[in-house]
Design goal:
This protein is α+β, with helices and mostly antiparallel strands. The protein folds into three domains: 114 residues; 131 residues; 84 residues, no CATH class. Helices cover 43% and strands 20% of the residues. It is built from 15 helices and 15 strands. Strands 1, 8, 9, 10, 11, 12 and 13 form a seven-stranded antiparallel sheet that branches. A three-stranded antiparallel sheet has the order 2-6-7. Strand 8 and strand 9 form a beta hairpin. Helix 2 runs antiparallel to helix 7, helix 7 crosses helix 10 and helix 12 crosses helix 14. The chain is globular.
Length: 385
């Protein structure tokens, strides 16, 4: 890996995609080896401004030797703060901001609006009040997170070890699984697998129902799959969920299991809960199949009401609703038709550049609609939003 790649990795906006599982695994093995988890008393942490007018920006001698000019400039353009760890400063990544506020036990929408020097002063005044410890993640030249130092509050679950455990368990339970893609940025890592050899056993009943409803082309495209996601920076727990793949964007169909980065959790705890998800996969498909039997007289109104209930991003949702109305008109439809039409929302957001963490949480939220009583949303009167 060249020097330029390392500089690029230090940037807050860095992301990378993977087409092969060994490349994803090797990337996170390298990340683990190059990262530093450092414990510190909260009251000994010191935050400083790092904007273009700050003393630190002009005199870089206070920074750790590993910190490049590029990392400093990038931070000045983003969060604009640095933190002193063990007598040396590191830039603060934007992913560390929320966890740092948690250590200082403050929050508020006014804080980001403060001048960086004032914000640093407020943070320091609060940090020095607390006796607990912090666990800092130093990665790619910056402090990327400031977790609680109590192992009951935060447990390190190394991403490469989670991935390795998941792949071994999948090979055992779903032979013939195929790695589809992987993604990583400073906030989140995700990966998905197709399960072609289990299509018959997992989807046969659902496919027959689709074909009986005149949706043979849709049935032919679908493939069961698995998605994994996790975060070292407090964005998400270690999760695995059931997917339907084959359309323009994978459909999250629930059946999710998760292990939180707390209560002294370890990688084997994550591997152990995977059996639960695999056992529930059929139930998740059955929930989706059930929507085929739910008749809606006013599907456009139902789609609007459900999107409103789920607090979907309004602009993207209205675009999906308009697209569905153009295709369906005033005709009745099934709740399944509407749920499939809603999948345009994450696709459009992805095209417009929404962060991966937002897309994953959006899809988890959308899967809640599988358990709704859709008749409650089948309203004759137009739904205002």
């Amino acid at each position: 890996m060249g020097v330029l790649t390392f500089f690029k990795q230090a940037l807050d906006s860095y992301s990378v995609q993977f087409k092969q599982f060994p490349d994803l695994l090797a990337y996170h093995e390298e990340q683990r080896k190059a990262s530093l988890w450092e414990r510190s008393e909260v009251k000994s942490l010191r935050v400083a401004a790092l904007d273009t007018k700050s003393p630190l920006y002009e005199d870089k001698s206070g920074f750790d030797p590993s910190v490049s000019q590029e990392a400093i400039v990038d931070t000045a353009e983003n969060l604009g703060l640095a933190i002193r760890v063990g007598g040396r400063y590191f830039p603060l990544r934007d992913t560390a901001y929320k966890s740092l506020l948690d250590r200082a036990k403050i929050n508020g929408t006014a804080l980001p609006k403060l001048a960086r020097a004032k914000l640093a002063e407020v943070l320091n005044s609060c940090l020095e009040l607390h006796k607990d410890s912090a666990l800092l993640l130093i990665r790619d030249e910056k402090v990327s997170a400031a977790h609680s130092g109590d192992s009951r509050d935060y447990s390190i679950l190394e991403i490469d070890q989670l991935l390795d455990g998941l792949q071994k368990k999948m090979d055992e339970r779903f032979p013939g699984n195929e790695f589809e893609s992987g993604y990583s940025d400073h906030a989140i890592t995700s990966a998905s697998w197709k399960l072609p050899d289990q299509k018959e056993s997992l989807l046969s009943t659902y496919e027959k129902m689709l074909e009986a409803g005149g949706k043979k082309a849709l049935a032919a495209k679908l493939m069961p799959g698995i998605r994994f996601s996790t975060s070292d920076t407090g964005v998400a727990s270690a999760k695995v969920s059931a997917l339907l793949m084959g359309l323009q964007y994978p459909i999250h169909i629930g059946g999710m299991v998760a292990v939180e980065h707390r209560r002294q959790s370890k990688v084997p705890d994550f591997v152990d809960v995977l059996d639960m998800l695999f056992a529930q996969f059929g139930d998740s498909v059955a929930q989706l199949s059930k929507l085929l039997t739910v008749h809606l007289d006013y599907p456009v109104n139902a789609m609007t009401a459900v999107c409103k209930k789920l607090a979907m991003p309004k602009k993207a949702a209205m675009e999906a609703i308009a697209m569905f109305e153009t295709v369906n008109g005033d005709n009745p439809a099934s709740a399944h038709d509407v749920f499939i039409a809603m999948q345009v929302i994450p696709f459009n957001l992805k095209v417009s550049g929404a962060p991966e963490s937002k897309l994953l949480s959006l899809q988890e939220n959308m899967a809640r609609a599988l358990t709704f009583r859709w008749s409650d949303y089948d309203l004759a009167k137009k739904v205002s939003w």
